[in-house]
Amino acid sequence: MTDAEKLPIEGTASEVLRAYYTRLQVFGKVLLYSGAALGVMLNVLIVPRVSRTSSVDQFLLVLLDSSLLALILRLCWIGLHRIYPCLFSYLLLYFVQITVLATMQLRSPYYTYVWVVTEGLVLCAEIFVALELLRAVLSELPNIGRVACFYLNATLLVMPVLLLSLEHWRGLLGALLVFRSCAVIELQIYFVILAVFIAYFPLSLKRNVACYSIGFSIYFLAKSVPILVPNIEGSSFVNVLTGASITCMIFWFFAFSRAGEARTAVVGHQWRSDEDQRILLRLASINARLKGTR
Amino acid sequence: MNNIQMEMRAKLVEMGLHFLCMFVDVIFLCLWASVNFVADRVIKLCRLEGADSVVGLVLQSLFGVATLIPIAIFIYRDITLMWIRTVRRIAKVR
Q1: pLDDT in tens, A251-293
Q2: How far apart are CA A266 and CA A210, in angstroms?
Q3: Which residue in A42, A134, A200, B20 has the most C-beta neighbors within 10 A?
């Protein structure tokens, strides 16, 4: 009897488990895709009814939601959700946040609770994305990457705690707002430093990593401006920033590919070939010197 | 153990396998039903009215059919395998 003629229940325990696990995975994938499609379609039906925002805002919201969903499905399709799990989780969480909040009434008593919980999760995911990006960019220089991760973790822990002890804040919402502003400023500085690093050093990166880092730097800038700049909410400038976020999603949708994991690209400044070598050797020597340090 | 006992035992094992296989397929169907129950609750929570409610119903039906397809394929495959084996066994006896 060949394997194709065997019932899934036949064979050793591990074979049976594997056969049913595969079936469960297939069902899960179909459930994910169709559930997401159902969510977006319901969103399109509900947003204009419950939201008090203008039609342009509604259109951008639905477009952002749809582009997020399309990107999530694309990452699943080409298998990058396993290689970049933090980015995938972040996109999924952000999609859930937008979809759930868009279906709720602004004055609903649960709106704040849902926002606090989802925003906290999204913020944590953003921090994990930053760490994942750092590891991906510095995969050839693991010691520098480890030290950079340590300092990023330390500042992300120390600064908000320090600020929370100094600031007057009220309740969970106040604490979250203080923590969020602090973390966003730190992450923004970190992304600028990372962008300068990539632009200056002629590192050869995987094509996907290059697209990931460039896209996320621009995306995070567009997302963090309304948080950091006061009295900007409701202005048309926010729509421009949302448009920039949507553009990043579309850019990733077309830029990410399976082949991008094998192909490499040099984003950084193209020096003379001897200068290139000198700079890379210097980086390698710094990396060697950092061996064993935190 | 004589031949009749051995044959009976083989038949019982085969029947047990078929029963277990169908039992797991039914569990998958229950999973599908519970997912669709949750989807129904979510759509009801949205309180769609007029034309929107019709669109909601269509979307719910599409969701139900889309999620049923993989399970229907699994069940079809299992039943076909059982059928082919039985036909083969009958042909052997003839």
Answers
A1: 998 888 888 888 777 776 666 667 777 777 888 888 887 776 6
A2: 8
A3: A42
d(CA A66, CA A197): 33
Q: Which residues 6+ apart lie within 8 Å of A24 measured at CB?
A: none
Quote the minimal CA–CA distance from B74 to chain A in Å. 8
pLDDT higher than threshold 80 for residue A194? yes
Cα A37 versus chain centre, distance: 21
Judging contacts by C-beta atoms under 8 Å, the chain A residues touching residue B29 are: none
The DSSP H or E segment spanning A266 is strand A264-266
Tokens 């065997």 belong to residue: A6
How many Cβ atoms from other residues are within 10 Å of residue A203's Cβ?
22
Q: How far is CA A138 from CA A151, A192, A291, in A?
A: 15, 16, 14
Tell me if chain B has a CB within 8 Å of the CB of A48: no
Q: Is the model's pTM score more than 0.90?
A: no
* Structure confidence by residue, pLDDT tens digits, B50-65: 777 888 888 889 999 9
B21, B43, B71 ranked by CB distance to A7: nearest: B21
Taking alpha carbons only, the member of A56, A19, A64, A21 closest to residue A40 is A64
Count Cβ atoms below 10 Å from residue A166 Cβ, excluding itself.
9
Please tell me whether residue A276 adopts helix, strand or coil conformation: helix
Write out the two tokens for A215. Answer: 């896209």
Secondary structure of residue A106 in the 3-state scheme: coil
What would the pLDDT profile of A64-116 be if each residue is shown by its tens digit? 888 888 888 888 888 888 889 999 999 999 988 888 887 777 777 788 888 88
